[in-house]
User: Fold this.
Amino acid sequence: MNSSRVPIIILYLTLVFLVGPFLVVFIAAFGGEPTLKFPPTSFSTQWFTKVFEVESFRSSFLTSLGLGLMSTSLALALGIPVAYALSRFRLPGAVVIQTVLTSPALVPGLVVGLALLQYFINLGGSVYPSLLAAHTALLLPYVVRVVSTSLINLKPDIEEAAISLGASRLTAFRLVVLPNIRGGVAAAAVLAFITSFDQVAVSLFLTGPGVSTLPISMLTFMEYNYDPTIAALSTLLIIFSIGLVLVFERVLGLSRYV
Amino acid sequence: MSHLQLDHLHLRYGNAPAVEDLNLEVQDGELVSLLGPSGCGKTTTMRAVAGLLAPAGGTITLGGQDITRLPANRRDIGLVFQSYALFPHLSTFENVAFGLRLRKVQDAELRRRVGDALEVVGLSEFAARLPANLSGGQQQRVALARAIVIEPRLLLLDEPLSNLDAKLRLDMRGELRRIQRELGVTMLYVTHDQDEALALSDRIVIMRAGRIEQQGTPEQVYARPGTPFVADFMGWQNILSAGNVPEPLRRTHPAATHFAWRPESVTLGAGPTSGRVLARTYQGEHLEFLLDSPLGRVKAFAPVTAQWAEGSELTFTLPPERAAALRDA
Assistant:
């Protein structure tokens, strides 16, 4: 066998490994039986209709969407200045700061969830603000990482050029830095949103009466129902995620910058 | 009253002193080079003048106004970087228009001024291109147009030609000189290349370890170096300590610590000192001989017809009338 083919074979095996579970879910979603079964023996699209009839899915989808958009916006609003400070100024203890800012991404989600639960109970916060704060904290490391990478690749002398031409530091950031890191910012936004939208471990601790995110509703639903509705919903979510990435790719040209 | 004046300027780079007690004056319309090896403080000085680095002490005066504490974006000083630092997302036109847009220049005037600046640097037909689609030389011209279009009170250039290839560098050198004359703009030019400084400058300021070593017209620093450092920088390749030099020459310059000769001043084939040829190098216009002699290593140029081979012995003269008397600072 030609050994140069090995990486290509690994590529295809990896693809099967990644896409396989999705195919199982996708096929099972069209099963006609009242319980989830693979491979299905009959065909039906009724579960896709049912997804939209489950009230908890509808409300928690909106919660997750809102939460994802808000926590992503907050994480960007905090993370971009943080990444800028880290990449442009020589701060004492920069390594420690960097480690701290990226640590939640390394700690298991359940631990973070438990820690945040204690934290918010002590603060006496209500459910939604707690969730929002927790998600924002969780997304921040991703944003800082991705945006930092873009900033490091952008030479600081173009800011100095802008300043010498009459721009304040803020104006230079807006007119010169931001347009050149927008790919990184968009990538950070997509990554952050999907992370928030998918989040189970932390949300598990912080969702409460009347407020639930979509993954938590799905978990709850599965405890009592074992029909293909959940597979249909999963299929729709996967398509939603892919669609999101494609739209960003089209509009902002992610791959050109990242 | 000089246009730019640095008085007792002290600059620090991190915690280390980079420039100490620097005093410098640049007249209106003058082109002054800061020349020196890397780490001599020339770029640090330029950054302080631009306002990108706060001095630890001293004052900077521009056109009679103390600008020591004035923010960089209000100094009206044009800056051209070694790396060009063009805005990658903006076209040539928009790069040049940047400073004018910040100054809220009206559209018709903006178009005229950007057009004029692009014409000065010969890039009118490239107005719509992005920097990535321009050659290094073209990018350098955009950077220059962007800096001059705001009609700066002072133009600072930091090694602007060092990223260009040799031929382009010569062309751009001439262009810079022409543009500077045409616009009458006062220029402070940072370089480590003595040829560039000699060709461009009205005056050269040679810096060493954060201090000014010598300054003068190109002719002065080239023909009359004052210290071994300057002599070495200006191509006086034979620098002998005073003890190795014949008595009469030493007596006429009692204060000198060293004497120097240019390689073209050494007379080969006759004289009081003998040497052995260590290397014979063809350099197009002449031959370069490296000699081992009792005075030390000596470099000398001879016509390409010279016949001495490597390893052969010959005599030479270091003519006293062509010596530079130096004093180690």
